[in-house]
Amino acid sequence: MHPQIRQDAHATAPRARTLALVLGLAAALLPTGCSKKHGAKSEDAGPKIEGDKITLPAGSPQKNSLAVEVAKPVERNIIRLTGRLSWNEEATVRVFAPVAGRVERIVAMPGAQVKEGDTLATLYSPDFAQAQADASRAISGLKLAERTLSRLKELFAHGAAAKKDVESAEDDLEAKRSENERAQARLQQYGASVGTVDGRFPLKAPLTGTVVEKAINPGQEVRPDQILAGIEKLTLPLFVISDPSKLAVLLDVTELDITGLHPGQKIQISSRAYPDRVFEGNLIYIGQSLDPLTRTVKARGWVDNSEGLLKSEMYVSIDVTGSITEPPQGATGITHGDGESRPRTAVAPIDIPAKAVFFKDNRHFVFVENAPDNYERHSVEVGPELQGRVRITQGLTAGQRVVTEGSLLLQAMTEGGSKD
């Protein structure tokens, strides 16, 4: 090669390498600049917020965190309450000693089936012995007065007795008769009749049933006024007789649930002791006043316990199938988050997942999907929660699409937009 040409080639090579380096660097920087410009455009296309409404841009990644469910009306208004079981008072009697004395013998033990008039225990009572003696003496005095009057009447008929003696005997007979009636009534009050004067008082069952409780021991001293002592151990009844095949259900009902209850409703009772069993019963009474401390109404029902599985004083859960009620007359409306009061509508309650509802500023809210990518916050009134679902009594209608997942995300986005 010619020397001049070789020299030009050596001079051109560094320039070519420099140009290639500059072009490569420019090519490397060009996508980065475009990416930054494109990113800035994406940041500009954020959610659009207008009051309680929020519109997400197309393709927003936040939509992947949202889930929607169609609101449906409540088919059965099931009210979940708590309560406890107790003896059925209509078939229960608590037995106390009507006399003072000492326990000699116990006849009936817990679980024993007794009939009305059966002896539960025997007490030795000086008071009862005195009543027996008074009754026997009254009978003897009455018989003596009758014989005396009869003899004086015979003597008076033969002129051997004065009339005033006959009249005095008649007065004495009336007095003895009254004394005998008083003594016999006292003895009958104890459930006994005239017999031997031994002071042994039979404590008897006042009705037929099962001995479900016993708080009496041999040698124990009992008194008829021990219930006034105010000491729990002393105020316990000696025996409790009941019919355990039918137990009472005592309920505490909140103000929100009162309108859905009425006597005669069917109730279903479940217990932690038998998680797979449901026991049937009825609601029989609803109280007329609220407890000033708990703000609840006392209600009572009964449950069939013919199998003997349930026990008195058990805590239970009660499901009541109530009636679906309309808003009260004269109700004005609900104030929504935008401050607008919208009229109430007489619609059936709505059942939605409890996680769809959130609490803000002492009110409950949900988000409703009005259109794809368009959501609106609604103020609602909630009822009782059951098995992860809550009843909405006002603020929603059937068919609306409620956000069940991501409502807090939408609320955060709404608050972020309102601050701007």
What do these coordinates show?
The structure is a single chain. β16 (274-290) and β17 (296-304) form a beta hairpin. The chain is of the alpha+beta class and 420 residues long. It folds into 4 domains: 53-74 and 328-419, conserved putative lor/sdh protein from methanococcus maripaludis s2 fold (Beta Barrel), CATH 2.40.420.20; 93-122 and 210-242, no CATH class; 126-198, Orthogonal Bundle (Helix Hairpins); 243-322, Elongation Factor Tu (Ef-tu), domain 3 (Beta Barrel), CATH 2.40.30.170. Strands 1, 2, 3, 4, 21, 22, 23, 24, 25 and 26 form a 10-stranded antiparallel beta sheet that branches. It has 6 helices and 26 strands.
Please render the helix and strand layout as text.
Layout: H1 3-44, E1 48-50, E2 53-55, E3 67-70, E4 72-73, E5 77-87, E6 93-95, E7 101-106, E8 113-114, E9 119-124, H2 126-157, H3 163-189, E10 200-204, E11 209-214, E12 221-222, H4 232-235, E13 239-242, E14 246-254, H5 255-258, E15 266-271, E16 274-290, E17 296-304, E18 315-322, E19 333-335, E20 341-343, E21 350-353, E22 358-360, E23 363-371, E24 374-386, E25 389-394, E26 401-405, H6 407-419
Antiparallel strand pairs: 1-2, 2-24, 3-26, 4-21, 5-14, 5-18, 6-13, 7-9, 7-12, 8-11, 9-10, 11-13, 14-17, 15-16, 15-18, 16-17, 19-20, 21-25, 22-23, 23-24, 23-26, 24-25
Helix pairs in contact: 2-3
